[in-house]
Design a protein that fits this description.
2 copies of one chain form a homodimer. Chain A is α/β, with parallel strands linked by helices. The two termini of chain A are 17 Å apart.
């Protein structure tokens, strides 16, 4: 049995996971990220005890503990090099955790962990796997021959920060035109708002009145009802998403690309035009082609991925 | 000892290479690509005999033969899946070669082979290596933990075909705005010509009279002499090159990026502004950073890379 911990900026989610990646028990508690990191570790320890006991197991049943963290990780030494959202710089999380529970600990970047979780449950025999998560930003994780790809310094896989439009939209990273400034849900919301300002006749205004605020579903919902402004927003957004996916396919030729994040609930509405765009635009036209799917674990990807990557990777 | 063959659209270059990647003997002959592929194989066989004998060696000294080919390769089965420039589709090159010389043969994509050659001679202890070749197009090769990265179907590593400018310049691959439409030497020549049309006062007109035609050095040469139009072309071109390199660093975090192709003769004129741009723009600002260098093997990269990758990889 394994413990998977998804340490986010808002919540700490902890799960007891079996060897097939099934969550047997889970619980969460607020991160309260302003406090000292050692307090956060204590809560992770407490939650580990809690889910283990709730499942009628004990710590002797736990082989490894995996922790997914939004930041740059030194996996080999169990150190968070930098996690801006958690105010952590060079923090020895694994060592601190083991003061309380002496079970091997593996730290993993959260996007890598989520990708590994999806990879593990979708089909771990696949040679080469890429996950694109469309959320506040665009995150990514790459699995090559069953191993998480991190780059030489652990900071690789930042697929949201490849420019798809030189001199385009301003990105938080300092550049202009990054993939995430076009393909994130934040970007979709901006694109929706701009179109609404242009088109006072659009059904999207009514939608917002009924639903409180513009979100990632505004354009998708209204497009389904035939609103032309919404269709324009949706189709343009999907083209941006697909443009980046073709870029990544030309570079990686993964066997599978999985799209995660809330917008992936759209399923075929999102997938079919992306598949068509890829079919038409990818560089390679011979031999086997990349499959494009939506994620299946949703919010559990972090827990499952942290646990299953800890099962396979090195740990402290 | 090893044989490295660089099978290009114009010439077949064959070299006898020692285990350190040093070429002991080399020779070349025209490809004459219109003829049947079996004739091309015969010439590769003849050249193999020739360089081996010229070096005072014999075939018993040869461990493996590596062939670099511009196309999509099925490395495992020694098949050229598709090489458009050589009119080859599903051609069993390795098997055919072994009818004449019964020594293991390894086929490799030419850009992968060149990257592996540079990797091998620069520092094979490096974890993770990326080569960007600025030529007629933009080619690339990726070495991850000492192995050539090919993607699940052998068609990976097409870094020249990632869009850096959505809806930008038309690319031969069918898309718009691919990296190679901005960063190849072909692109630089187009950028130079456009600027010359705009600026009849530019020194570049005189340069072309003296040198016959616009080429990749026109803007670089005249920029060195202070021509403002040439400086604009050069600086903008370097920014495009660097934009793509930052994209690739954010994704791969390679320990080293090597820039190859004729333009890499510019050395620090090219490297220093790229290094500055990367330093300023890359996503990761912590820990060890990617080194950026120019290629050292130039035209020999194909031979050395084909030989050294055959030494390490699987072969038929």
């Amino acid at each position: 049995m394994y413990i998977g911990i998804d340490l986010g900026g808002t919540n700490i989610a902890v799960g007891l996971v079996d060897k097939k990646g099934k969550i047997l028990q889970k619980a969460s508690t607020p991160t309260l990220r302003e406090r000292h990191w050692s307090e956060i570790v204590k809560d992770m320890v407490i939650m580990t005890h809690k889910v283990t006991e709730a499942a009628g197991k004990n710590l002797a049943d736990i082989k490894v503990i995996g922790i997914g963290i939004p930041g740059n990780i030194d996996n080999e030494n169990g150190i968070v090099v930098r996690a801006a959202n958690l105010n952590m710089t060079n923090v020895h999380i694994a060592e601190e955790f083991r003061k309380y529970i002496d079970i091997p600990v593996n730290l993993e970047n959260d996007a890598n962990a989520a990708a590994y979780g999806e990879y593990f449950v979708q089909d771990p025999r696949r040679d080469n796997f890429l996950m694109v998560t469309l959320g506040t930003g665009v995150g990514g994780g790459i699995v090559i021959k069953g191993k998480i790809f991190r780059g030489f310094n652990g900071a690789g896989g930042e697929i949201g920060h490849h420019v798809i439009h030189t001199d385009g939209e301003k990105c938080a990273c300092g550049r202009r035109g990054c993939y995430e400034t076009y393909a994130s849900v934040t970007a979709l919301i901006n694109q929706t708002k701009r179109k609404m300002a242009e088109r006072p006749d659009s059904m999207m205004h009514e939608w917002v009145k009924n639903n409180g605020a513009v979100n990632g579903f505004t354009a998708f919902d209204c497009a389904k009802k035939g609103d032309s402004a919404a269709i324009e927003v949706r189709d343009r957004y999907i083209t941006y998403v697909a443009e980046g996916i073709v870029n990544l396919i030309n570079i990686f030729q993964p066997e599978t690309v999985v799209i995660g994040g809330g917008i992936s609930y759209e399923g075929d509405t999102l997938l079919n035009p992306i598949r068509e765009f890829v079919e038409k635009n990818e560089f390679n036209k011979q031999g086997p082609r990349t499959q494009i799917e939506v994620a299946t674990l949703f919010n559990d990807a972090g827990i499952v991925g942290a646990a299953m990557s800890a099962k396979k990777q090195k740990f402290l």
